[in-house]
Amino acid sequence: MPILGTIASSQTSVTPGMFFINSTTLGSNQNGVTLNDFGGYDDLVIHYLARASVDTSDTEIVVNNTTGSNYPIKLHYSTSTGFNGESFNTTNSWPRTGYSAYNSSEANFYGTNQIYLPRYTSNSYKTIIWYGAGRYGSDIQDATGLGLWQNTASITSLVMNGTWATGTQFWVYGIKKS
Fold this sequence. Notes:
mainly beta; Jelly Rolls; four-stranded antiparallel beta sheet
């Protein structure tokens, strides 16, 4: 998979590659951001720089406004003191998919995250792969995760739940394989 921005452009042709779809920059604090209108690609990539409006930093993703326990995840995480562990949960109603910087972190520090959704329009369960880093007070945390949306419908919308501060930014890219 290409690194975000390496071959990204605003083209909408059928040429293989990674293409910019849309972006959002928050002008005020918000608790959730809906991303949609991304049809016509094989895979999706969501990149975001996040700062929390309160001292919490988790991001959760909701696919097509579904709830329930259809999001099993595997999460590996570490802090500035080293590897802290892993978790596996088969009953998550929404998977954690990133970190932001706490509101009390130093000014202008944002968590950075990327979510990869391969084959998001297929008629099989959807894989959610993510990695990110954020700041809890003076401690930097990073994590990688793998989740599964146990549904065969195409993904048509994503709600990024968090306590987003003004200036948080989201970018959506589509990948065409052929």
